Amino acid sequence: MVVLALPAFITVFVRIHHYYDAAGRALGLGEIPGKPEGRPTVVVVPVTGVSRLTQYGISQALSISRHVLAVTVVHIGAWQEPGRASELRRQWASWDPGPPLRVLRTEYASIAGPIVAFVDTLRRQRDERIIVLIPVVLPDRLRYSFLHNHLDAVLTRVLRDRPDVVVARVPMRVRVGGRAALAGDAATGSRRRRTSAGRTSRPEDAHAPSGRTR
């Protein structure tokens, strides 16, 4: 076993050492690189409709670049609700966040496929850096995590093979239902009732003359 294992370990370690040397030369380790150069950037934000999550994602995208495109996917199968695309466009125009909304139509159940095809079209038509910024829900309870962000997992897996596309996620923390939310709603309702009833009288106010200004 020693006679077989020792040469095998030596061979593996030598190969690893050669790989690190080659990787260092490819990365230019120990050399002074050229000056960094910026490129115009277009940010693609996948959305499902007009919501606070969409607002958060668009806001983060505008912090990166002024050129932002929102994309959404609408199924055109027989089971699809009629006028869904028109309703989305109407809501977007009423909201008017600034960036335009691109409605992608598909006959299949896949939502990621049309978005990936749209990104590939941008890659062929534009010389800009493309960032796909995915708004994701971060629930306050871990057990709800698997109910969200399915599109994020699919898009990240598909687009990671495209080195000229940057895929990023912007998490938005969300408080879901439960005792904490119910308690918060009760406290809010109590404050509203006290506000509508007027200022609570203090004990010393009961003994003050009615005509005297305090």
How would you characterize this protein structure?
The chain has 214 residues and is α/β, with parallel strands linked by helices. The chain has a domain of 134 residues: Rossmann fold. Strands 3-2-1-4-5 form a five-stranded parallel sheet, sandwiched between helices. The C terminus is likely disordered.
Q: In the CATH hierarchy, what is the superfamily of the domain at 41-174?
A: HUPs
CATH class of the domain at 41-174, named Alpha Beta
Order of the strands making up the biggest sheet = 3-2-1-4-5
The arrangement of helices and strands along the chain is HEHEHEHEHEH
Q: Mean of the pLDDT scores? A: 79
Content of β-strand: 15-25%
Rg (C-alpha, Å): 28 Å
Q: For the report, how would you describe the main beta sheet? A: 5 strands, parallel
- Total helix count? 6
Q: State the CATH topology of the domain at 41-174.
A: Rossmann fold
Total count of strands? 5
Shape: elongated
- SS-based structural class? alpha/beta
Second-tier CATH architecture of the domain at 41-174: 3-Layer(aba) Sandwich
Q: Which percent bin holds the helix content?
A: 40-55%
The low-pLDDT segments are 179-214
Amino-to-carboxy terminus distance: 98 Å
Q: Descriptors for this entry?
A:
single chain, 214 residues, alpha/beta, Rossmann fold, five-stranded parallel sheet, 19% strand, elongated, disordered C terminus
Brief summary:
With 214 residues, this protein is of the alpha/beta class. It has helices at 2-27, 52-64, 84-95, 112-125, 150-159, 179-197; strands spanning 41-46, 68-75, 101-106, 129-139, 165-174.
